[in-house]
Amino acid sequence: MVATNGQRTESDPEGQQPDTLRKVNRVVIRFAGDSGDGMQLTGDRFTSEAAAFGNDLATLPNYPAEIRAPAGTLPGVSSFQLHFADYDILTPGDRPDVLVAMNPAALKANLGDLPAGATVVVNTDEFTKRNLKKVGYEQSPLETDELERFTVHRVAMSELTKGAVAETGLTRKEAERCKNMFALGLLSWMYHRPTDNTERFLREKFSGKPQVAEANLLAFRAGWNYGETTESFAVAYEVEPASLPEGTYRQVTGNLALAYGLVAAGQRSELPVFLGSYPITPASDVLHEMAKHKNFGVTTFQAEDEIAGVGAALGASFGGSLGVTTTSGPGLALKSETIGLAVALELPMLICDIQRGGPSTGLPTKTEQADLLQALYGRNGESPVPVLAPRSPADCFDIAMDAARIALTYRTPVLLLSDGATANGSEPWLIPDVSELPDLRVSFADSPNAPDGSEEFWPYQRDPRTLAREWAVPGTPGLEHRVGGLEKLDGKGSISYDPDNHDAMVRLRQRRIDGIEVPDVPVEDPDGDARVLVLGWGSSYGPIGAACRRLRARGMPVAQTHLRHLNPMPGNLGEVLRRYDRVVVPEMNMGQLAMLLRSRYLVDAQSYTKVAGLPFQAEELENVLSDVVQGVEL
Amino acid sequence: MGGLAGVPAADEEYSAKDFTSDQEVRWCPGCGDYAVLAAVRGFLPELGIKRENTVFVSGIGCSARFPYYMNTYGMHSIHGRAPTIATGLATTRPDLSVWVVTGDGDGLSIGGNHLIHALRRNVNITVLLFNNRIYGLTKGQYSPTSDQGMVTKSTPAGSLDTPFNPVSLALGAEAGFVARTLDSDRAHLTETLRAAAQHRGSALVEIYQNCPIFNDGAFDVLKDADEKQRRLIQLRHGEPVTFGPEDERFGVVRDERGELRVAKLAEVDERDLVVHDAQRADTSHAFALSRLGGQDLDPTVTGVFRAVDRPTYDDQARQQLDEAAQQRPADLQQLLTGRDTWTI
Question: Are strands B250-254 and A56-62 parallel, antiparallel or unpaired?
Answer without folding.
Answer: unpaired
